[in-house]
UniProtKB/TrEMBL annotation:
This is Polysaccharide deacetylase family protein. Residues 46-64 have a biased composition (Low complexity). Residues 17-64 are annotated as: Disordered. The keyword Hydrolase applies. The lineage of its organism: Bacteria, Bacillati, Bacillota, Bacilli, Bacillales. GO terms for cellular component: membrane. Pfam families: Polysacc_deac_1. Residues 92-272 form the NodB homology domain. One of its GO terms (biological process) is carbohydrate metabolic process. Keywords: Hydrolase, Metal-binding. InterPro entries: Glyco_hydro/deAcase_b/a-brl, NODB_dom, Polysacc_deacetylase_ArnD. GO terms for molecular function: hydrolase activity, acting on carbon-nitrogen (but not peptide) bonds; metal ion binding. Residues 31-43 have a biased composition (Polar residues). It comes from Paenibacillus rhizovicinus.
Amino acid sequence: MLLLVAIAGCSEAADSTSQDNADAVLPGSGAVSNPNNPTSSGTAEAADTNNSGGASNAAAPAVAPSKTPKKLYRMNAVYSFVPINKEAASSKVVLLTFDDGPKADKTLGSLLDTLDKHKAKAIFFVNGYRVKQHPELLQKIADRGQTIGNHSWDHIDLKKEKMETVKKQIGDVQTIVNKVTGHKPVFFRPPFGSGNDQVKGFVRDSGMLYMTWSDGSLDWDSSTKNKPDKVVANVLEQLHPGVNILMHELPWTTQALDSLLTKLEAKGYGFIDPATIDLGLHPTAASAK
Ligand SMILES: [Zn+2]
């Protein structure tokens, strides 16, 4: 039942001089649910996402304020999304995510404008050291109604670190994001998609949903550098209902985004609002399978 891993941590690690690099991902990252990639070395790490019931600090107000959207989607074992109630939400959706920012007003602004044009929401998984450099860009993401996720402070491989370091790498991002925007992230993605039980446990205890992705754009890879059309093609090749699309704040991705979203819409896909994702952190979620 578990799907293992083989994170290509090496790809990114090998290129560690560049902070602009991203999470290693292989073309077959659609994992089990993608029959076209049987040899996938997959990026989904384990089938333990909806589980555990762990942390209990997720607020579950009996009377939800009108600001809080209804929860419509739940993440599955391979980090894709399925409707909680098929009659209430379409399964033909994708989650858009952008990692490793915030970097620059130009690239970020372009992404935000294109998302607005398509009335699309996304999660921006940020690194703490970049937030420290550009808190105003983080604020901009929040001001534009997009969701901020935690991607660790230094973009290091957390699987190789001691618990103390893991806590600091994750906790310091919660602190700085909260300081800048007034809200702590509720989504976490490990750099390189690389985690272990220690990392997952701390993430859950911090009130966040841990995810890697299920549709890698490969925009970080040299094969796709400066090729917006390739970004689009890579995503569409792995497309299936509910995919969790990994992209980065990179110039060729910003150039690709309008075309990508247009093509997704033409195929009948909608965009998941991260606020409608059930984090699965409620104590009662433990029994949900
Ligand atoms: Zn990253």
